[in-house]
Amino acid sequence: MARYFIYLSYDGAAYHGWQVQPNAVTVQQQLEEALSTLMRCPMQVVGAGRTDAGVNASLMVAHVDFPSEIDVPHMVYKLNRLLPPDIAVGTLRRVRNDAHARFDAVSRKYHYKVVTAKSPFSRRYACRVQPDIDFAAMNEAAALLLEYTDFTSFSKLHTDVKTNNCKIVSAAWHQEPNGEWIFEIEADRFLRNMVRAIVGTLLMVGRHKLSLDGFRAVIENKERSAAGDSAMGEALFLVDVKYPDDIFI
Fold first, then answer.
1. Beta-carbon neighbour count of residue 91 at 10 Å?
2. Could you say which of 66, 117, 131, 248 is the most buried, measured as most Cβ atoms within 10 Å of its Cβ?
3. What's the pTM?
4. Residue of 52, 65, 132, 240 marked active site
């Protein structure tokens, strides 16, 4: 057996998220079907995490086991021939046979894109907000996230996780040269719907509908109903997953 990490990207618009589920088309399903066709046997992949319906990834990582070592450029070429246009494999990297795309990840990073003016070129991948939204206040609120570990208030209800604790190492808004605003957040793990719920609540702060003390109270309340509505999924991108160097061969 030879285990590899697959590095891929995808536009999530056509998919019900990453994870295989009944009666719905997912990214994991498409990747497994392509691999199974190439290898002429059932193939399973394990992703670094889940992305919700509509959410994108400029970098997702998944592991897969081949019977033996492979020709990586050839496999990348063949996979991209079989996969639909909205999923692309960048490369594969050989890892230890006990390496795990999900459990060995030390951090994940997301970007959420916001625009303050109408643009035909960003309408599918950015959330439009009013021009006078207060990004400075949202950055003050975002900084409060680093003081906490329990993010129950931003988690989808009735999930199967054992804990809602996460360690956020950075969370801030910054403006790109094209005028687009990016909320960048990195943590050791994320709960289901967590980033979209955080963004939705930060936007309340930016609209002056929630104070900084109110934002802190939302976190400490530990009730999803205390937070704002989830922001649209199409503007969210998984952009990086980091691993320790010693798992690579």
1. 13
2. 66
3. 0.94
4. 52
